[in-house]
Amino acid sequence: MDSSQSNQDPAPVWYVGHHHSRRSSPFSDASLDAARRVDYDMLTIPITTPAFQAKVAGMIADYLDLQEQGASADELPVPIVPALTPADTELAPLECITQYIAVTSSWIDLASADPVIANVSRQVFSLEVAYAAFCGVQNIMIPGPAVEGRVLTSRLAQYARCILEALRSGPYMQFHILLPMTPSPIFAQTPGLNLSQFAKLPNHADAEDYVSSSDAWSTWETWNLIRTVCSYNTRLSVALGLPKQLPSPAIQSRWFSEPLRLLLIHETSFITNKHSQPVLHKGYRHLLTRYMRLKTAPWILLWDVGPVQKDPSADDPTSTSQTWPLPSDLAKPKSVRLDPNPHLSYMRYLQRNQPPLPALLRFGAGYQDYLQAPLQPLADNLESITYEVFEKDPVKYDWYERAVHAALTDWAKLRKPTSSLTRPGAVVIAVVGAGRGPLVTRALLAAEATGVPVEMWAVEKNPNAYVHLQRRNADTWSSSVTVIKSDMRSWRGPLSPDGKLGKVDILISELLGSFADNELSPECLDGVQHVLAPAGISIPASYTAHLTPLATPRIYADILGKGRDDATAFEVPYVVMLHAYDFLSVPAADDTDRFLQPDVQTAWKFEHPVPRDVIKQAALRRGGSAAGGGGGVSGGDGANEHNARFAALRFAARERGVCHGLGGYFETVLYGDVELSTNPVTMEGKSADMISWFPIFFPVKTPITFPDNSELLVSIWRHTDDRKVWYEWMIETFTKVGGRMVKINTSELHSSIKNGCLM
Amino acid sequence: MDSSQSNQDPAPVWYVGHHHSRRSSPFSDASLDAARRVDYDMLTIPITTPAFQAKVAGMIADYLDLQEQGASADELPVPIVPALTPADTELAPLECITQYIAVTSSWIDLASADPVIANVSRQVFSLEVAYAAFCGVQNIMIPGPAVEGRVLTSRLAQYARCILEALRSGPYMQFHILLPMTPSPIFAQTPGLNLSQFAKLPNHADAEDYVSSSDAWSTWETWNLIRTVCSYNTRLSVALGLPKQLPSPAIQSRWFSEPLRLLLIHETSFITNKHSQPVLHKGYRHLLTRYMRLKTAPWILLWDVGPVQKDPSADDPTSTSQTWPLPSDLAKPKSVRLDPNPHLSYMRYLQRNQPPLPALLRFGAGYQDYLQAPLQPLADNLESITYEVFEKDPVKYDWYERAVHAALTDWAKLRKPTSSLTRPGAVVIAVVGAGRGPLVTRALLAAEATGVPVEMWAVEKNPNAYVHLQRRNADTWSSSVTVIKSDMRSWRGPLSPDGKLGKVDILISELLGSFADNELSPECLDGVQHVLAPAGISIPASYTAHLTPLATPRIYADILGKGRDDATAFEVPYVVMLHAYDFLSVPAADDTDRFLQPDVQTAWKFEHPVPRDVIKQAALRRGGSAAGGGGGVSGGDGANEHNARFAALRFAARERGVCHGLGGYFETVLYGDVELSTNPVTMEGKSADMISWFPIFFPVKTPITFPDNSELLVSIWRHTDDRKVWYEWMIETFTKVGGRMVKINTSELHSSIKNGCLM
């Protein structure tokens, strides 16, 4: 790695290898060493040789001869591919094998509609996979099901089933399916022989049965089918072929969400700069920067680049051999040497010159797509380290301080009466759920800055945090704070030394979860509202929960894994730093080809304080005396029913996709115009660089496929009974046919009732 | 029941009740007795009274008044419906309650987009369901989510969620959702007050959000959503309102497949015959005949028929009371009496005059939709009773006899050489898998009829059946048969007394399963083929497996139940007498409005004898010496791979629907033009009234919804390794958008590998 880079964090290492379409250097420790000397990290190697290819082609030709001589296809057994001989493969279980990516034959056609061609192709493929597994290959690359750029829709499942079989027969290998981002002429090239040329297509293979190669999304759709058949196997990933012309931002974003493990950059993608050196254009460089920030950065394969010599040892006259020339004069300074491997040098240059990571990616390193159960601070007592992580947020507490500052300023300006019994004229502030006291500090700072006298209370139920608060009061707050050990819902309010019960003017809390209300802020604040003076205010004043549908294949695979042991894996929302995902509802692109903001909609809102009549009614219902049948609608006495919510949200999806669930965010108005937001559309403007909250994710059990111009109708509930709060969600899809929206799918109703948040 | 009916089986009893839209007779044992005296079996009863309705309406009006006086909606608590008083309900836990169907209020709107109306509606609904459950109601009818014939698509989920809640709070009740077959003006009537008239619709309730009431399929779509949200709960069923004009055969068939438990026939559906009596037109009568043959016949509710008197006791001037007049002169003979309840009498007349049941329904009574694991006759030894059931088939053995007759006739005509070592000129027949010998008997009869001399062998592996065969040989076949105890695959062939091994000329077997090859007929016949003479023939000569996509909600619910204990419940095909199902791929209707034949496609074919080269290659592969990597494609040595199959079938679905799986059938050519078929399209022509086989059913785990003009692409495999045979299947759906087929869904890949058929 180059140590000359400017930013502090070490630049991440890129793994760059070399791939040749036809043949590469011979398989040997020496070949690999030669490649590594010029700084390649890995090589690809075809599993079988041209000699093997010729043998199989000969078998098929013989078979077809017999047919032409009049033998009926029914009477002829399918040709059997015999076991490999040393002439058929260069591969061997050498130590260097871990640095090689084995490549299965591209001249077979697993998706053939001709049963004989399909059968022989399967035999070749099985042989190759089994032999690669025997040799200890760790990574195997498999050409996608494209035959001259076209493939029968009705045979994609047949191809996918072969991959599933391969996953079983090579249980320790990672399988990379080579697919172009978008159909591309490079991939349509079928150099030399191709078994599909022998195929006899059945009558039913009509034009409608072909995947249109002109459709930019067709290779993604193919991938979606393969991984669906293979049940999102985590050993299955994409070797993505980047085309010369990059496709739309929407397609780039979609592939970003998929398990990319290899990126292939073909020689034709490079352009020449004024120094006659191969470089990549700006869009390409941005794409690489984005893709290389994936949690597991893909490996890059330079494809058919560099000097190629005809291989004199090969029988096949088109066969070539790769050599790895070293700079001719190692003694000269690097800058004046002639670079014999300029494409690779350019990739290393890009690697060294990556822009620094954004704050959130630096802060969240390692947490990308890692699923966490939401906190239950009401039921559990948090540990100090958890508080400490939150307190590190560079934005959140500053904004709280601004909010308190604004509230005190307004209070003074409006000459509102205060509630203090002990210090007439002082505004009574209570921080409820004070934790280790960061909001107390900030409120005191705001009071000092505004010059408004305050009487400060801190209420905390966690006995461990309570110790810490008392110590801070003595050490830092000059004992100016009254610290109370209590669940805020049981606190009767400020008690003066002469035993009189007072009220609170400003109630400050930080009870919000990733989806605003999911850590029961509404229930807690309802429970403490009786201490608030009639003119009192709550910070936060209100909060809203927001949603948008997402494609998250990586997270889906992860939950599917959890689901093997846990029937409720899909019935619970997760807190997760969303990373490898794609927004599915994005407004129509303008002509600038920019990456556009998604449609993130508001599900519901909570405001504090709650109107007195509502609180009164809730109290009346407690115990079942008010409502008919004694009942809340979702069970219980209904005392908390004013905190139930429902939303029906309609999202337009312009491009086809597959929905794995809903991303959830929140916004909150602390006071006035001081707001916090994790909503990707507004967070930059409202609270950029805030790191305290990851989004929430509501999964769906069965991924929901939909075509272009669809609508996703999301129904989501916040349910409550006497003891807990839970969510339910479902998604229905519609698509426009003949000007009318028609129903195309309905998910199950998902419910977190078994993992509800306890009140 | 009338004993004068002509057919032998007693006509099934119809349960007929009475339903009144507004009010019925008072709830009491006496009312019920009166209704039963005129031959009604049950009555409906509203759970709450008009007084209750007025009370709730008053609450809402008060609430709206407060709003109009300037109170903000946010500040007003939602009105709470108080507990029921005796004035609010007539219902009580009397003994007669089991004969009553309780009806929830139709004046509420559970699907309202106005949160206050929705909330109050939910309160009323919860109260009613809870009180009905308390009273011991067994059947509860709930008006569907239609408000003046229109309902917000985006709020159907909200309605459905209320039903789910009700299923939980009334765990011993059966819930009937009242829906018209197709949107109908009768259901759009909202007599008197309706809460929805108070609703304030939010801005987003635009025109596109409404279910079009002109779409004939919209009520079925609504039902499909409700039961999906309720996870196909078996306590949830349809109370189907039959409209005056019956909809298309396609819609009639679809509802037939749904859990119909109540059929409502409105007074306006009756026409008057020349005797001025109310009758139903022919299409209606056919529909009733069809629906009343459901395994659990629905109950019929006559709706708003008969004399209705204004109820003098009710406050509501529109309220009415039903009385049940008895014939005025009971002494006169029935024929000349004036019938005061002519609609009911007509239903009883229809009941007595139902056409006799078809043979298959008589034979299969009780087996409708009952899921059975396919037989494994190769792995298990069948019991005598199983053989006996099969031997009762009125068609199958006759057809075998015809086939043997034709084969022997041809044999003699063609002067083919025979293989007999002991009786020169005799045709050697072997019945392999002879069971209790029915085919031996038939072959002997055919030989006698043709006059062709035969040498008869019977081979059977089941030691118990072997005893039986020997006894029959002595008793019935004059010891003319040589009975061999052997698995056919180990039988070396006919052995002459002098120790010479002969060959078989005609090999007869009955190894077919519901999907042709699913009981391993191909593998068994391969294994015995070595005994066949070069010119020998196999009866059957060939067989084919057939498929068509189906809607089977009842079966789906059943497998879902099994799935709670068995993870492979959806990964295995079932043998089942398909009953409450609907064909999803039916060609376009002509103008005759007939019920049309489905599109049933051929998946694959097996022919016997298998070409010698194919058998030879298989033998060569056994043990792994021939194929590369030693391997069959699906594992094992590949010796049985010539019996693997794959099919990709494309089915057009004209009308929208939901697919729960694939119906499987077979056809076989026994010999020449003698064929058997269970394919619903051809069975009438090829082997009408054959009862030996029920269809097979391949389920899908997640039902697949699709819109009109879709295509279902079915991929199905017959896989094999050295030890077993199994199937895999998946379904992809496409729909036509802008002239192009676009992908809309992909099922999982289902596999019976864990329950494969052992070889």
TrEMBL record, chains A, B:
Q: Which UniProt keywords apply?
A: Methyltransferase, S-adenosyl-L-methionine, Transferase
- Asked whether the UniProt record includes Transferase among its keywords, one would answer yes
Q: Which PANTHER family match?
A: PROTEIN ARGININE N-METHYLTRANSFERASE 5 (PTHR10738)
Q: What GO cellular component term, any one, is given?
A: nucleus
Which intervals of the chain are annotated as region Disordered? 1-27, 311-332
Instruction: Return the Polar residues bias intervals.
Output: 316-325
Q: Which residues form the PRMT5 arginine-N-methyltransferase domain?
A: 363-539
Q: Which SUPFAM superfamilies match?
A: S-adenosyl-L-methionine-dependent methyltransferases
Q: Where is the PRMT5 TIM barrel domain?
A: 39-353
Report the sequence similarity comment from the record: Belongs to the class I-like SAM-binding methyltransferase superfamily.
- State what protein this is by name: Protein arginine N-methyltransferase
Record-level Gene Ontology MF annotations: protein-arginine N-methyltransferase activity
Gene3D superfamilies assigned to the protein according to its UniProt record, in alphabetical order: Divalent-metal-dependent TIM barrel enzymes, Hnrnp arginine n-methyltransferase1, Vaccinia Virus protein VP39
